[in-house]
From TrEMBL:
It is found in: Cell membrane. The chain crosses the membrane at residues 33-51, 58-79, 85-104. Signal peptide: none annotated. This is Small multidrug resistance pump. Keywords: Cell membrane, Membrane, Transmembrane, Transmembrane helix, Transport. It comes from the Bacteria. Its main location: membrane. Belongs to the drug/metabolite transporter (DMT) superfamily. Small multidrug resistance (SMR) (TC 2.A.7.1) family. One of its GO terms (biological process) is xenobiotic detoxification by transmembrane export across the plasma membrane. GO terms for molecular function: amino-acid betaine transmembrane transporter activity; antiporter activity; choline transmembrane transporter activity. GO terms for cellular component: plasma membrane.
Length: 110
């Protein structure tokens, strides 16, 4: 169960870092740039801890899939970026894939 806590922390830190990457305006704004660097470093650290007991492919699929969906939703909420029907369908399929992996796959832990 601890692996999922580290994976969740990795996802949250990656989402924060990516959101600040947008706000950093090409690394021209100091504080969002610092948050971006620290957030990505923390995310990769937490992901590396989760990889001690999870298979790499499954952990990365969950990390990137959930991250994509959360970043897309935050971009919609914070930056008013549109999500059209194909984007929403694609995100639904990504989440369905994450659910299938976690529910049915025996390769979650190695």
């Amino acid at each position: 169960m601890t692996m999922y806590l580290y994976l969740a922390a990795a996802i949250v830190l990656e989402v924060i870092a990516t959101t600040c990457l947008k706000v950093s305006d090409g690394f021209t704004r100091p504080w969002p740039s610092v948050v971006t660097a620290v957030g990505y470093a923390g995310s990769f650290y937490c992901l590396s801890i989760a990889l001690r007991s999870m298979s790499t492919g499954v952990a990365y699929a969950i990390w990137s899939g959930v991250g994509i969906v959360l970043i897309s939703l935050l971009s919609w909420l914070l930056f008013k970026q549109r999500l059209d029907a194909p984007a929403l369908i694609g995100m639904g399929l990504i989440m369905a894939g994450v659910i299938v992996i976690n529910t049915f796959s025996r390769s979650v832990s190695h």
